[in-house]
Amino acid sequence: MFQYEIANGPDSRQRPAFGERELSRLFRSLRIAVIHGGDKEDPGSVIYRSHNPRTWKSYEEVAGDIAAALRRIGFRQVELLPEDMRLGDRLRQARTHLAWLNSGGVQGYNPLCHAPALLEMLGMPYVGHSPLNASAFDNKHVFKRELVAAGLPTSRFMAWRGGGGAFRPHETGRFHRAFGDYAGPFIAKPDSGRASLDVHVVDDVESLVDAVNAIYAKTRNLVLIEKYLPGREFCIGVAGPVVSRGGVLEHLGAPFAFSAVERHFDAGERIFTSMDVKPITGRRFHAVDPEFEPELVEELGALARKIYMEFNCETLIRIDLRSDDKGRLHILEANPKPDLKQPGPDRTCLLSSGLARERMSYDDLIFSQIANTLHLLLADRKDTVPHIAALVD
C-alpha cells in the first residue's frame, strides 16, 4: 500500500493546496479517466478517416501503467478510455471528474491538441498540456521559434512546406538566411513526429534535397531542417513544483527538473536511433552524475526550468539537448508526452532512470503529476472546477 503524507513548511505558499483530509476524500470519491490514443480504424471512432503525418500509436499499455499506479496510490475510481469521437459521451456517462491525457491523438495534422481542446470545451479538467502548448511542442519549428524569441539556445533551422514542387535550397532566400555559408552536415526530419522516426543525417546540400523530398512524400507535412550538432546528447525531465518523495508531498516553489541522462551512440550512429527500431535499454544511456559534472547538471536543469516557465507549462515534459563542437548546449525539442511506462526487468524509460537519485519511485512520479494538477486547480482555478471542490469542502 502506498503511504503518503503532506509536508507542511513554514510558508503556506510552499504547501500543496490541499491537506491529508482533502486528499483522503479525493482518493475515495474522485473519478479519473486515463485516456489513450483511439484507433481511426475502429468502427465508430471517427466520421471520416484522414491522414496521419506523425506515426500513430495507442499508448494504451502505458495508460494502463498510469492507471495501476493511481490505484496503488489510493485512488479508487480509475478507468481507461480511448480518445475518439465518442469520448465526450463516455466521460459524461462515467461522470468523470478528472482526465489524464496519455494520447498522441487519432489522426489529422495537429493531433496532440485535439483531446485537450475537446476537454476544455467540455469543461473537463485534465492532467496534460494546454492545446496551444501540446501543438507547439509537437510542431518543432514553432517551438524553436519560441526558443529564439525567449533567448534560449537552439541550432539554426528552417521549415519547408512541400506542395509547390521539389525542394531547391539554392533557389530560396529562406535557406540562405537560415544557414548562410554553412554547407553541412544537416538534420532533416518531420516537423511533427514521434520516436525519432524518419530522421536523416546528410553531409551536404545536394544530399539534403533527396532527404527532404522523401520525408515530405511520406508525411505530406512540414519538414524541419537543422544544422547538425556533433557533440554529446542529453535529455532531462521537468515538471511542476509539487513533488512526492517516498509518498511525502512537498511544494518546491519552482519547477522540478530531474533524471538528467546522456544518450549513448553505437559505432556509426550519428543520432539516437528510434526506440521503435532499437528498444531503449540501460546500455543506451547513463545518468549524468552531479558529483562528477555538477556544472553540466545545473545547466541542464536551469534550461529545463526556463522552458517550463517561458511556455507556462502545467505538466511534465522531457527536454532533449545536444552540444555543438565547442561543447555549448542547444535545445533540440520538447517532448510533450514523454514515455511513462513502469520500469521492469525488461523495460525502462529515460525519465524513470533518475528517480532513485531523487528518492522517488515510479508511483511517486505519477503521484507528483496528478498532485500538481490538483494543486493548480484548487489553488488558482477553484471556481472553474466546482465538481472537484465539492469533493474536498
Automatic annotation (TrEMBL):
Give the family per the record: Belongs to the D-alanine--D-alanine ligase family.
EC nos: 6.3.2.4
Give the protein name, as stated in the record: D-alanine--D-alanine ligase B
Query: ATP-grasp domain spans which residues?
Result: 144-366
| Ligase as UniProt keyword | yes
Question: Which organism encodes this protein?
Answer: Oceanibacterium hippocampi
The record's annotation in Gene3D superfamilies points to: ATP-grasp fold, A domain, ATP-grasp fold, B domain
Q: The organism sits in which domain of life?
A: Bacteria
Q: Cite the entry's keywords alphabetically.
A: ATP-binding, Ligase, Nucleotide-binding
Does the keyword field hold Transcription regulation?
A: no
Provide an example Pfam family for this protein: Dala_Dala_lig_C
Q: Which SUPFAM superfamilies match?
A: Glutathione synthetase ATP-binding domain-like
GO function terms (MF aspect):
ATP binding; D-alanine-D-alanine ligase activity; metal ion binding
